[in-house]
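Open question from group meeting: does this chain pack into something compact, or does most of it stay loose? Before anyone orders reagents, we agreed to write out a predicted structure and look at it together. Recording both the input and the output here so the notebook holds the full record.
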Amino acid sequence: MKRGSTRNKVIGGVVALALTFVLYQGIVNARVFFYNVDEAIAQQAELGDRTFRMQGTVVAESGTSEGGALVFTVAYNDATAQVRHVGPEPSDLFDLGEPVVVEGHWNGDVFESSQILVKHDESYVEDNPNRVDYNLDTGVG
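Structure tokens returned:
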């Protein structure tokens, strides 16, 4: 009886250890830090080539480089950073003056981006002003 009990404890311990390792790896790999442009520039040496997200407003677009990358400049708090994006095309909302979040890492003084998230505010323009208003609270239009 002792032999089976010891074996079950060992198997249970191995399973618990494996689950703990998988959970830890998931948390570590899912952690992506978020910085404003000025913070990312100030901490550039410490960040090195680690992946993080950087927030700013698009202030200039240089177009595409010889490698097909989209090159643009983002700014936040009077600091600017050049971004070289290789990856999926940004959405139609990507434009000068629009806030964006880029994910990537520093490569010298250029931020190498692999993903662009275009932020938008919560003000919506009414496309059809002549439509009947619908009240969500009462369900009456």
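Observations to bring back to the group:
The beta strands are 33-36, 52-64, 70-76, 79-85, 99-107, 110-118.
The chain has a mean pLDDT of 79.
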